[in-house]
Design brief:
The structure holds two protein chains of two kinds. By secondary structure, chain A is an alpha+beta fold. Chain A has five helices and nine strands; from the N terminus they run αβββαβαβαββββα. In chain A, α2 crosses α5. Chain B is globular and about 40 Å long. Classes of the chains: A alpha+beta, B mainly beta. Chains A and B meet through α2 and β7 of A and β5, β6 and β9 of B. β7 of chain A pairs antiparallel with β6 of chain B. Bound molecules: copper (II) ion. Copper (II) ion (CU) binds next to β9 of chain B. Chain A: GO terms for molecular function: metal ion binding.
């Protein structure tokens, strides 16, 4: 403790201004900039996976480029977090009104064993009509999750069933497929809806 | 159904509501508010119910378990989201509520996890859910079943 403090004072003595500037850069733009999650998802253009949507269409990351996109992972056997996320998103989309129809909103299952195309179709049908459900072979789900830097894990439960731990954040991309931001699970609507609006306008403002 | 209501100070409100089975000191002062749940698709997926459990008494109470004819394995669970944004869910164990305090079972946190449903949870219906306390007392509430996309007790 004593030694660490001494070192700190030493560093401060060596150049308070330089250190302050460095710390400022580190926190704001540098590697120390706050990342809500571990790693940043790739741009959609750099992802590669093939899945099937709830209407049996072949889909992949390429289908999402051209419009702002909201993506999240979950599974339909999830009793708490996933229906909550889906109903939160449905609420945000309602608040956006007509703008919602200018977006891709995709729910990717992390439990393809139980979440067949039919299961996804039935499930998403209970939420906002813009929401699409994507499923597919396990290896393709894994590639999708890798692209988004999302994680998931199968966990056995007492009853002989299993549940899935999974990334619950919502990913927002602009129309070019670049990540705009993420919405944390449980983020209040006052913060979520403006973030979505940012994704909706980013392609205009961000055009160079 | 131990009827020990004569012992002392049973709140009138619970007598009138008829929703509580009074028992030893503590759990007769428990009030459950704003219970709700979401409809299920069939019986293969587990359900979840939410409510606020308020201890209006002067002794701490400990919620130890759940029972309902709707599900063979009802259990209090807790969902957690870690700093990497990964959500997980696990049995919450016993929950102690201090006098005057309440515990909220709400989306994304504590919930009454309804595993092994015996019948589908149908929107517009109700089901009874019994909360069991460490003093042997039980409190039964009727839980309304709302739509799958419900966000709270108001729908
Ligand atoms: Cu649970």
């Amino acid at each position: 403790m004593q030694r660490r403090q001494l070192l700190l004072y030493g560093a401060a003595g060596a150049g308070v201004l330089g250190l302050t500037l460095f710390v400022g850069w580190w926190r704001v733009d540098g590697p120390g900039a706050p990342e809500p999650k571990g790693q940043r998802p790739l741009p959609l253009s750099a992802m590669e996976f093939r899945l099937t949507d709830h209407e049996e269409n072949e889909v992949g990351p390429g289908n999402l480029i051209g419009r702002p996109t909201m993506v999240f992972f979950g599974f339909t056997y999830c009793p708490d977090v996933c229906p909550t996320t889906l109903s939160d998103i449905s609420g945000w989309l309602e608040e956006l009104g007509d703008e919602a129809s200018e977006m891709n909103v995709v729910f990717i299952t992390v439990d393809p064993e139980r979440d067949t195309v039919e299961a996804m179709a039935e499930y998403v049908g209970y939420f906002h009509p813009v929401i699409r459900g994507w499923t597919g072979p396990e290896d393709q789900i894994a590639r999708a999750a890798e692209g988004f830097r999302a994680s998931y894990e199968r966990v056995p439960t007492e009853g002989g069933d299993y549940t899935m731990n999974h990334t619950a954040s919502v990913f927002l991309f602009d129309a070019k497929g670049e990540l705009v931001t993420m919405i944390d699970y449980h983020e209040p609507r006052e913060f979520a809806v403006p973030k979505i609006r940012r994704a909706l306008t980013e392609d205009v403002e961000g055009a160079t | 159904m131990t009827k020990r209501s004569y012992i002392n100070g049973l709140p009138l409100v619970l007598l009138l509501s008829g929703m509580s089975t009074p028992a030893f000191a503590g759990s007769e002062d428990v009030v459950v508010e704003n219970a709700w749940s979401r409809a299920s698709i069939g019986v293969n997926r587990p359900g979840a119910a939410y409510m606020t459990v308020r201890n209006t008494g002067e002794d701490a109470v400990t919620l130890t378990g759940l029972a309902t004819p709707l599900a063979m394995m009802p259990e209090i669970h807790e969902s957690k989201t870690n700093s990497d944004g990964v959500s997980s869910m696990a049995p919450a164990g016993e929950i102690t509520i201090e006098p005057g305090q309440s515990v909220a079972l709400e989306p994304g946190g504590l919930h009454a996890m309804l595993m092994k449903l015996q019948e589908p949870m149908t929107e517009g219906e109700n089901f009874p859910l019994t909360l069991t306390f460490s003093d042997g007392g039980k409190v039964t509430v009727e839980v309304p079943i709302l739509g799958i996309a419900a966000r709270g007790p108001e729908g």
